[in-house]
Amino acid sequence: MRLWDANGASVDQAVLAFTVGDDPVLDRELLPFDCLASAAHARMLHEMGILRSAELEAVLDALAEARRIALADRFEIALEQEDGHTALELFLVERAGEAGRKIHTGRSRNDQVIAALRLLIRERLVLLGEQIEEIAHLLLDRSETERETALPGYTHTRQAMPSTVGQLLSSVAEGLTADLELFLGPLALAHRSALGSASGYGVPLPLRRERISQLLGLERSDINTLYVQNTRGRLESATLGALHQASLTLGRFASDLIWFSSEAFGFVSLPVELTTGSSIMPQKRNPDLLELARAVPASMLARYTEVTATLHGLPAGYHRDLQRTKAPLLAGLRDVRALLAVMGAAARGIEFDRERCANTLREEIFATDRVYALVRGGAAFRDAYREVKERGADSPVRTDPESSPIEFLAARTHLGAPGTRQEEWIRDRLREVAARLQPNAEGAATARALLDSAAQD
Amino acid sequence: MRLWDANGASVDQAVLAFTVGDDPVLDRELLPFDCLASAAHARMLHEMGILRSAELEAVLDALAEARRIALADRFEIALEQEDGHTALELFLVERAGEAGRKIHTGRSRNDQVIAALRLLIRERLVLLGEQIEEIAHLLLDRSETERETALPGYTHTRQAMPSTVGQLLSSVAEGLTADLELFLGPLALAHRSALGSASGYGVPLPLRRERISQLLGLERSDINTLYVQNTRGRLESATLGALHQASLTLGRFASDLIWFSSEAFGFVSLPVELTTGSSIMPQKRNPDLLELARAVPASMLARYTEVTATLHGLPAGYHRDLQRTKAPLLAGLRDVRALLAVMGAAARGIEFDRERCANTLREEIFATDRVYALVRGGAAFRDAYREVKERGADSPVRTDPESSPIEFLAARTHLGAPGTRQEEWIRDRLREVAARLQPNAEGAATARALLDSAAQD
Amino acid sequence: MRLWDANGASVDQAVLAFTVGDDPVLDRELLPFDCLASAAHARMLHEMGILRSAELEAVLDALAEARRIALADRFEIALEQEDGHTALELFLVERAGEAGRKIHTGRSRNDQVIAALRLLIRERLVLLGEQIEEIAHLLLDRSETERETALPGYTHTRQAMPSTVGQLLSSVAEGLTADLELFLGPLALAHRSALGSASGYGVPLPLRRERISQLLGLERSDINTLYVQNTRGRLESATLGALHQASLTLGRFASDLIWFSSEAFGFVSLPVELTTGSSIMPQKRNPDLLELARAVPASMLARYTEVTATLHGLPAGYHRDLQRTKAPLLAGLRDVRALLAVMGAAARGIEFDRERCANTLREEIFATDRVYALVRGGAAFRDAYREVKERGADSPVRTDPESSPIEFLAARTHLGAPGTRQEEWIRDRLREVAARLQPNAEGAATARALLDSAAQD
Amino acid sequence: MRLWDANGASVDQAVLAFTVGDDPVLDRELLPFDCLASAAHARMLHEMGILRSAELEAVLDALAEARRIALADRFEIALEQEDGHTALELFLVERAGEAGRKIHTGRSRNDQVIAALRLLIRERLVLLGEQIEEIAHLLLDRSETERETALPGYTHTRQAMPSTVGQLLSSVAEGLTADLELFLGPLALAHRSALGSASGYGVPLPLRRERISQLLGLERSDINTLYVQNTRGRLESATLGALHQASLTLGRFASDLIWFSSEAFGFVSLPVELTTGSSIMPQKRNPDLLELARAVPASMLARYTEVTATLHGLPAGYHRDLQRTKAPLLAGLRDVRALLAVMGAAARGIEFDRERCANTLREEIFATDRVYALVRGGAAFRDAYREVKERGADSPVRTDPESSPIEFLAARTHLGAPGTRQEEWIRDRLREVAARLQPNAEGAATARALLDSAAQD
């Protein structure tokens, strides 16, 4: 029974299913964070004199238990309870009686869900950020090993200039560093307290909103109560936007690995656990995991679309349309977690065929080197370019045709060029960005401690 | 154990989860159709001499049983089985032994899944089409009753010209008729057989592809085997596109009902089962179901995006990326089914406040009538327009200020104008379009009969 | 000066630019169709007794002239005129005086723009459809020539089974046939008359809407006037959806050609006019045109998104938001026209390196043939599969290692298999679909004749 | 003549148009930034000894002139020149001879375009950010004036709790503050130098990449050359994502104003310059500008989609597909600029009907206040809620029915509640965020000075 049902209106089950949507499932993921937010809220109610000490204790104990059950994925939410927030209130009423009936003082489900979502997003983004950092370091490790492994550098899928395997691996690591930087935007917005906005217009009680913020390890509280409600779907979309960017970097790397591991290129072999067989062709080993990874950006775009298009045209304040932004957010977080697992396994397990890589460079890939030989001899670039072009790209550039591509790479000495020592530079930037996620990580620990300590009492 | 696993490669569970995705859940929905396709395939194998009569019988019995279990949503697909197609083959091997080990002759999972998807799409679109037709007729019934219920006609959310409630209801019905017409495109593509394409390059066996097509009640077989593989994700997106259109019509009608049932308009009251309460404000009855309906188009756009963006840039043939097009298709079909249930309930249950509707028309809404009075008197339209504009829109147009809006509507006599008898015209077109879905409905019945008769044997 | 400006309100230029948008440019493309719709409207006004014979003649002459100027892209629309519809009315007033001031009788800009858009869409889709048909026939011609050119058949970018160049080319042709079939949906909706809906609520005049429909060579008139207004953005999105599908087929073929023409594959060479050079690397010839073609589906998805997301949440009737659906429609039509030009040139100009194609087939690509050899000998498929898999995919399948892939292809005899004569079957279906576009082509000719004959008088 | 054309290949004009796309138009916007980047590049070439002093001077003079012409929108780019980068090189060759033929030393069009785009994005985002800040302050000014103007607070488009006009205005201001914060992500990525990456693999010359970065007022240089190329389309999409967020805030506010200015609400009147008339209905004043503003988020979503979907599936390095990301970026920047102009005009010009606002509050909007009266008396919230609900929402809550809504608002004293003094708090946060855009603004000034000083010499 929902707490605010119309008197006796018989609720058609099919319609209820649509109303409720996937909330009973999705809210199992959200519930542990609702427990934390509720714990801070309860403490504030106690400090305001609304919950007595014993009541507070009973509520915190019940919340700690609810959180334990939910983290073990055993908190059942009945269809009639509609969502996890109602289920949690009923749980508290059952365990803590009168105190449970007081917990909703000064809040609405509307700010309760926003509060829980922000805590969830903060914790998840911090975790995904750490995994991204780890993969980037791993790629830099491997880049160091493959710094002199010559590889054709491609543009337009054609051989362009000499490059190295290390250059490719480092490029992904630097890309992930930039992606991580884009986490800071949504993390800043998640690092603020929503509670006290109620359904968007506050309540006639002297709530201490900044105190809740402090208890939850948040940077501060949002101000305008209507603004808080209008953030619904917005932090979600900013989060999905940031995750989309990371998926683009990794999806593109997956694309490289798929092609480079095909018979046509043969540069790299994939760890067997990232491949699967065929039901009809006994010889096949397919790069299925990397193909699924390559497809993740399309799903992230779809989720970003779903959340933002839902907002189009809505006036201010809460509308039930916004409920439908929860599923794409949670699915997006889950997908990126899996994507990172796969691409981490790829970064660890791929093996390069150094000989094949080096032997694939064609003579004409050195044409630009010939241009620059003329430039170093004093020719204007465009004249040198024309001269080489007219001579024909096939005419040999290497005086000694046995000379190794690595000699050509050695002529590229500027910052970030293929073959140069660049990994440590990138690591510095990576660590710098990662350090900026620390306050969020610490805030998340503060919030968790709210119920960990209760649990220990 | 999957049938084509690499020898002894230990498969990491997390990676497996990503590989498998939601297939074990999604395929429970697909499996009944895979059973039908497999039954037709088995009959063809028998006719080719590959399955003996007793083997065919054993296979058909097992397929009928699998279908029954799956329709009851009790067919369990283990994570290690990876997908429903493998699970079904294992089920057949278990029940029918040697015959089960023959069932995959002349096909691949790749064409098996396309075949099952087409049957599913055909059956679902036919069913949704019938529901759309029903709602359209319902709206026309109500339009007849409300043909003379005056209502302000709005453009730009401002009162524009006099209209009627019936005009609004009929407009939705005609809109649904057009939407239904757009079902014909994907239905035509779903009405063709995919089997025999194997993994895209056929097999060295004299398969009788047209025979399978006939057994499944399909219009004909596709030809080029590689083309068949390239349809993966394409029929799905064409289907989602058509469903998106229907959701736009109904989402927009939901938007009208949300606003018209608000205190500010007060034209219509909603059936109580389409509203819910608030956790904090005891007085609230919110139009939640209609808000969720309004949001469906955003989700449909997202699903269309997910499926088509997955295809961008892929070369010909199957890639595992395509697996990820299954979930958005099934979710889209499910959402539109719920949307139709809600909007059907709305079409039945809304009640109009005729007095309030009529009383809301403001004097200036008749300004265009005044222009046309001058036009009927011989003035050029643009001159009449200027004259009325200069006089000021507020000056009365009705000589008798007690005259009813219905008198003004009576002057609108042309085809489809507010207040005219138009419902029967729209019904004719609706029936005409609905009749064009019949061959698909009959084909679906033919396919179902393949195992219904087996079940009866 | 717009005809309905507020008295003396000074209009800020920047705001005007936003209001007007790109209409002065876009409407140059729409204007020739507005002239046709206006000609039919004028004839109806004459038959209703509103325009006298001389007035009709003056209006038709002016419309014919406006159309000629517009088709030559010389019809200037001033920023203050806001859009082409106003500009046209002012043009008529200037040329035909009183008759020009009568032309807007019984219509609104709202139905005027819908009417013109439908005529434009009908004509453009017919034209694009004819080009698609031509490309498909061209591909089938080339498929006949390359029917025995062996090519590895790929799945997951790995060699899967033997195929042919012809199989690839025919698959695209059959794909285009299906795409063309999806044109029929939007074409059916474009083949209906919108005029007489005015701003959505009709007018108090006995308009003859069906007569206009007949004059414009349309199948019939829409009925409900509000419905007509609600189609704005809808036909546009259905059209973009159909074009998106065609772009997916061709974009994917472009992707194949890009990879197959790279050094890594070397199967095909591109016509030089589809490639460009590099500003820095003298040796490069890049497949730029095909890359641009590959990117078109992303743009089509964006346009579909723009149009449909604009509609989300809007209540019934016209809103200015809808103006913004015009640009994506016209851009989409233009892009697909260019895409067809490029892919037509590619279909004509590509040359296959038959030897390289055939030599690239690896021994293990025949593994499935070995499985089927066992099947033909009586083994159950799954047992045969296991046996071949255990033996190892590398062990030779060809008893005579000099045997040609074509011998293996010869064993594939079923409908649509690689190497079979399938082109004529596909041509039949192509012609059948193309024939269904004929009524639209004829209707478009009827509409054009409205002013061609006027011009000749 | 492009500089790298194939010898004598006749280039079909239609194909050329597709190749070139809108570049000749779009690049007029990009060219002033290309001039700045080229100036820094030239200085570095001089410091490396490649350009002599006189050559540098000639190049800088020519660049300053090109920038002046381009800023006046008079730099013509011929279709055969293909893009602005080539046109600029040809311009330099014409003006500076040999020095012009040297300018392309050590770069490629690929890094040239990225460099110019970053400078453009930095400058535009700074400018748009300043406008957002200005609008937010304006809204806070107006919020102060309307702090006690009672307004129904809505959820689900139903009256929920008492609020104020000031609360609505402040909520938008705080929303814009958060949006501005999301500008910091793309601004950080734009604040880095791309030059020296050439076509992704560097060049065999000792380029001083950090020096260029310094000259352009950028924070630092990116490192890995391939990474730089892979940012193409990425910064663009991150920028569009941030702009999309701001458009969502303003589009939603536009939606509120559209509804609140309709006859049904009547809370606010719009400045006449934001409305337009109707071609058929003389009485209409439509909120066209706000409707166009409401539609902008749909366009921003489309542009984000176009850019990111283009990237899906691409392997590393430059592909011509990426050219198509330029148009949506520039269109998005332009649209948001117009959106800000319109919404700034709205923020300034709207007038509230205070009496109508206050009189619209219905008795039941105070139901929650009654609940809280019981809570303050000691009742548990849920019990109080039930009691009020059972009594019926209509029973009066106000003992003195003449009491003003403002008395109820006075009971809401917590942070950010309606009626509280919150504007100064929001201003503080706004100023804090705006200050973080300063380094970008200063960097942009540094870059501009590169040619301003040259111009003054």
Would you mind describing this structure in some detail?
Four copies of one chain form a homotetramer. Chain A has helices at residues 13-20, 23-47, 53-71, 84-96, 98-102, 109-145, 165-190, 209-215, 225-230, 234-260, 288-311, 326-349, 354-359, 367-376, 381-391, 405-410, 423-435, 438-456; strands at residues 150-155, 158-164, 192-193, 220-221, 268-269, 351-352. In chain A, strands 1-2 form a two-stranded antiparallel ribbon. A two-stranded parallel sheet of chain A has the order 3-4. In chain A, strands 5-6 form a two-stranded antiparallel sheet. In chain A, 63% of the residues lie in helices and 5% in strands. The longest helix of chain A is centred in the first third of the chain and has 37 residues, at 109-145. In chain A, helix 8 links the parallel strand 3 and strand 4 (220-221). Chain A has 457 residues and is mostly helical. Mean pLDDT of chain A is 92; it is low at 1-11. Chain A has 18 helices and six strands. In chain A, helix 10 runs parallel beside helix 12 (326-349). Chains B and C meet through helix 5, strand 1, strand 2, helix 7 and helix 9 of B and helix 5, strand 1, strand 2, helix 7 and helix 9 of C.
